[in-house]
Amino acid sequence: MIGGEPTLYRNLSELMRQARPLGLEFKLVTNGRRLVALDYLTELKDAGLNHVSISVEGARPETHNRISNSSSFHQVMRAIENCAKLRMNFNTLFTIGPDNAGEIVESAKDLARMGVKHILYNVGLPSPGNQDVGGGAGSIHPQTAASKITEAYLQLKSLGIKVKFNMTIPLCLIETPMLEVMLEDGYISSGAHCHIFYGKGVVFEANGNVLPCTHFVGHPLLNLKTLGIQTAEEFIKLWYSESGLHGTFHEALWKYPHPKCQQDCKYWGECVGGCPFLWVHFDPNQVFGKQGEAQP
C-alpha cells in the first residue's frame, strides 16, 4: 500500500481486515507521520499489517523537511521508535537525490544507532508526469549516484553498518572489481528487479485505475470500473492473454538501452540497464559513453 500517503485513507484498517481472509498480505509504504500515534499503529498491526517501510529523506531535519515539504523529521523518528516498540517488521527507505546524496552515511549511522535492522536506499528517478518539474528535476545523474553509493559502501563497511542499495541504475556504472565485491557483500541488489519486466506485479488505485508501476500515477492503462471488471479471472485474462497488456509491456521494455548492455554485460537480465524511466530524462550515450565507458 503506497501513495500519495496511504495512512490518510480513513478505512485502511477495515480494508485489511476484509482482505486478509483472501490470503493477502500487507506492506505499508508511508511518510510515518500518523504512526507517531502508537494506538493507530497497533490498530493497523492487529488488522493484518505485515510490514512497514518508512520514508526518510535526509539525515538532518532541515534536509528531510525541505525535501518532504513538511516539518516531519522528528515525527518520522518517533514512528521508527514505535515500529521497534511493537516489534513490527519494518525498514527505512531513503531516496537518493541531488539534495541529500551527501547524507547517505550520516543517515545510516543514525538509523543504526536507533537499532534499525533494515536500512534501504533507492535512487531518485524521473517521472513521466508532472510530479517532477521537467520530468527529472528531483533525479540524480546515474553516474553521480553510482559514485555516491560506492563511497558510502566503503565507509559503511568499515564501520560494520549493513545497508542495501536498490540498484535502479545500470550496474556497470560501478567498476567491475568493486561491483563484484559489493554484490558479494550484499550491499547492492543485482539489478532493478522491476516487476513490470516480468509481469509479476500491478498497481491498483482506489478509483479503479490500473498502473504498471507507481511511477505512472496520472497515466493509467485502464480503469476497472469503466470496463466493468469485477473478478480476478476477468483481470488476469485481460493482463495475460495473447494480446494482453503484460505482453505489450514485455515487448516494449526488453530492449538494450545502450550497445554496451548487449556487448559485454554478464548481468543482463537482472540489471536490465536500470529503470527505463532513466532514459526518459538522461541520454544513454552520455551515461554509458559513446564507446561504452561511463561518463560523469
TrEMBL record:
Keywords from the named record: Iron, Iron-sulfur, Metal-binding, S-adenosyl-L-methionine
Molecular function as annotated in GO: catalytic activity; iron-sulfur cluster binding; metal ion binding
Source organism of this protein record: Candidatus Uhrbacteria bacterium GW2011_GWA2_52_8d
Radical SAM core domain location: 1-166
Entries under Pfam families matching the protein: Radical_SAM
The protein's name: Radical SAM core domain-containing protein
PROSITE patterns (alphabetical): RADICAL_SAM
InterPro entries in alphabetical order: 4Fe4S-binding_SPASM_dom, Aldolase_TIM, Radical_SAM_PqqE_MftC-like, rSAM, rSAM_sf
SUPFAM superfamilies xrefs: Radical SAM enzymes
Keyword Chaperone: no
